[in-house]
Amino acid sequence: MIDTIKVTIWNEYRHEIKNEAVRKLYPDGMHKVIADFLGASEDIQTCTATLDEPEHGLTEDVLNNTDVLIWWGHIAHNEVDEKIVDRVQQRILAGMGLIVLHSGHFAKIFKRMLGTNCSLRWREIAEKERLWNLEPGHPITDGIGDYIELPNTEMYGERFDIPTPDKLIFVSWFEGGEVFRSGCCWERGHGRIFYFRPGHETYPIFYNEEIRKVITNAVRWAKPRVNQGTEKGHHIVDPIENITEKHVDFGSTGVEQT
What we know:
The protein is of the alpha/beta class. It has helices at residues 15-18, 20-25, 30-39, 60-64, 82-94, 108-114, 209-222; strands spanning 5-11, 44-50, 68-72, 97-101, 121-133, 147-157, 167-174, 179-188, 191-196.
């Protein structure tokens, strides 16, 4: 019996509505394209959620039935409700995986989990990108060669204001000369996080078979290893062994007087 990984793909779904060029590439939204190629795998079950749905589509029931959350955002990061960010954060700490794509680097949840500004340098002139595979033995790079080459992309350049990754998977080189840490792994609480740079909305990035392979591999890597409930704050626990009763004067210095 195959263990099914339940994946929720979250997307702002604003560019596809407002921008004709993006709508031609992704008529039903980037989330639908990602859901379709992931759902073609026998071990992955997908659903989608978008910004303008009630609770941004990320209700407690949806998140409690999500093993891995994929996040794409760009122009409406500030519209994401802090209560939903809190809810997602607690699920990650409890074991849910998070995959952040492209401009999701500025998402509230990504900055919350990493604790930095996640700022970077950028330009958009359709230049070539070469993503070098630094970890050919890693589960995320399974089936990927020495590099992935994309003919037209938006450039992201260093310095990328992130904590040093637990594991750096890809480094990009761009035609204009910049480099960028494009595939980064972290663990937070019981959850795993993967940031993957490709995915600009005006280029057909999510139709590229190697990009699809990386995202599919990342889902399998990020799936929960445990689902450990988390509670905010401290809580008292009973000892597991008997403790001899002690009488301690906490007002004394503990120094013997002569």
